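Hello K.,

You asked for the raw outputs rather than the summary table, so here they are, unedited. I folded two proteins back to back in the same session to keep the settings identical. This is the first:
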Amino acid sequence: MKNRKDGSRESGIGRREFVKIATGAVAGAATIGALSGVDAAGQAPGAPSSGASASGQAPATSGQGVPWWAARPKGAVGKPEAIDLHSHWSPEPYDKALADLGQPLANPYPLDYDLDKRRKWMDEHGDLIHCLTLSGAMPWQRVTPQQGAHLAQVINDTGIQVHQKYPDRFVVGVELPIRDPELALKELNRVAGQPGVRAVHLPDSIERHDYIFDPHFAPVLARIEQLNLPIIFHQMDGMANSYGGDRTAGPPPLAAGIDAPIEHTFLATKFIYTGTLDKYPNLQVVLPHAGGAFPYLAGREEHFLFHMTDHSTSIQRPFREYLRRFHYDYLIYWPEAFRFLMTMVGADRIVVGTDNFAAKDVEYPSAVLDQFKLAAADRERILKGNAMRLLRLQQDRKA
């Protein structure tokens, strides 16, 4: 057991130890087939096989011969209806501020900063609203606290202005300079209540340090809860922030594929076993990439926390109930895994997440979901209803 700075005791299962005891449970996710629509091979019912890979196994594809997450609508795109909580941007004032610090973007993507083109793209792909957040290229590890505070002000002010110009299309996940909790709290208070501020965007960790659970960061969490703003998490790029360090640096580069899901898993688990979710009962947390490996390892985590190595951890509810304290975006890539997520947490805890325009994975959010032939109420919840509740958007908004 380790003593925390506030005098309490923290579980002796550290970040590295956690991964060692947790990695064995991933294989079970593929056996779940509770939802209709896409079959166990990733294809729509009755669809012809799209061929086998070099290993002799059929790739996970939809009935259109493409991966199920790349599904396209069968006909014309209807009225925009999806609210995307995993959507990145990098506006020009922020890009300029980075360049002024000697960190210019190498290859800026037009849809990250050209909002006229972005709105046109949204209309063509069925996106109603984007909650704008930085990508994994967040700067906090590369800049001083004071520089971070300036960058946060620039991008947050830009986001507020964008919402005021396009109030029905964009809301803001505000960025905070996390290296300094006092500066982070100051920025949070500065933007609190401003138009379009509907969430807070934070990295899972920085330099493999779980800053979220530091006592000095507690006032920030308390204020976020008080403001009723959900936290949208995302991993931060760079080997210094990567859980596996140079082990996943490549070639081939697998940090986003392996490290990011483990970061999300550890973040969610530590929210539970540190008592943080109990301390902040109204705090809303959105996990990207369908929570990483967390929903699939949760049973094993509970077993090792409460039945094997640590009998002093105390939480207020059964471990399994905490899975529904989080929301999860649906960016999971294989239909079997999405079915499993639905089984574990329910449609009312899942939101759209596309990773546009970083990984540029899901182009048609509705088409991806429609392959599962969900009940109309569940479809509506995932596409926009849950996001409207989290972001406190008007329930009578006309889509």
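The second followed immediately with the same parameters:
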Amino acid sequence: MFRCLTSYRFYSLAKVGFGLAYLWYVSDFLRIHVAIWNQLSLLLPDPRTTILSGNPQLDAVLHGIAKLLSGRAMVWAFALMSPVAVGLFLWGRHKWLQLAVGWWVSFSMISLNCLVGVFSSTVDVWVNLVFVIYGLVALVSPADEWEKSEAGLSLARWRDDPPMASAFAWLVVWLQFLVYFFAGVNKLVLGWIPWTTGVALQNLAIDSSIHDFARGTHVPFWISLVLCYVTLIQRLVVPFGFFFMRYRFWSVLILGTMHLGYAILMNVNLFPLIGIASLLMILPPRMPNLPRASSKASPEGGKTISQERRTVAPKAAWVENTVICLFALTLALESARLTRFDAMPWENKLMVTPGWRMFADGGVVAGGEWRVILATPRERIDATAIALQALPHLWRDRFYINIILSDLLNKNMGPGSLVDRLARSTRRMYRERQLRLHLSPTVVNVGFELYQWKPTPAVGGPAAP
């Protein structure tokens, strides 16, 4: 019942994209952990205060496990095993091996992220759910069906490019539909005014996610208005084309073009990769002219049963369809719930939070920046560069920077907060630098200044803050 008709080549290329997304994720978090082993830990919350489940007694146990999984040995083990896991994932044979591969990938992603959630993104949840789905399908799929419907690498199949009815592909397509559709719903729920009045794209032109060459570019109102409604249509209407064969190609073309635009203009790295990889499974396959399946009478009641329908035992098919249906329904209901409510702590830590709120607020606080100012006996010093030198220098840095901005705007600056730790670590790094240079390390006070970007009215560089 829950099968998506796709082609072997598109299915295989999509799996390559998923594998690359996982390797990219591991590479990012390896660099984050290496930075933590240096000075980044000074900027981050105390791991002992991290809420993992919301239950204090259970968290006391989970903190020990999380500390073990975030240690150097385990981080390097996850990094070194990642190419092996991807290789086995692409090979695709033996359902029990693939079950282990899918859930190992998910386990490694959760472990690498559990204590450094300030660098995580919604797209990480998307990648993780793809591999959770893969393991789930391997668990419930009948063994004889796995080799046919979830085919592994085969040169002969690549040449022939046969159509495949894949349960994994169906759930990937369903997940992608939910990502787009609820991203549109959240834009209406959380950003009704900027998205419906057409100013959202003007706001987002100065967002920190925009590449430097495009950030601050003036977007005329009429262009912003049109693009706002195009964006809403892309999210709320186009994804329904996934479920109609005649509209699949056009849906993929429209959304694939959108992802390419994001890749060019925005620093959202993994999002275009996982998006385009998932879209490949939606492309319609070539349908060869197959002979009509032979059928023969059932000895019990004289009914005819096709050979295809004899391939799966009714009980096994019922279990598979029931599990897939319940999982798909849970994803949809939780995506709907998260439009109005926050995720539970354990959902965040297990990276199964389908809260698709990408740019949903319409950029109402886009363009905000902060600077760390040190007051010394002689002068005031902009120490922002010193403060940020401990970051891993990835596209994920902006998540930490945006959290600091949000905390400053909301006056969340108490002892132990991220802002407090940033101020203390900046003072410390400045003193260490001054001592190395044999200069005065005295700092009288540490403060912050907030700035707001404004779009430039004409072609040129971004306006100065």
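DSSP finds 18 helices and seven strands in the chain.

Happy to rerun anything if the numbers look odd on your end.

Regards,
P.
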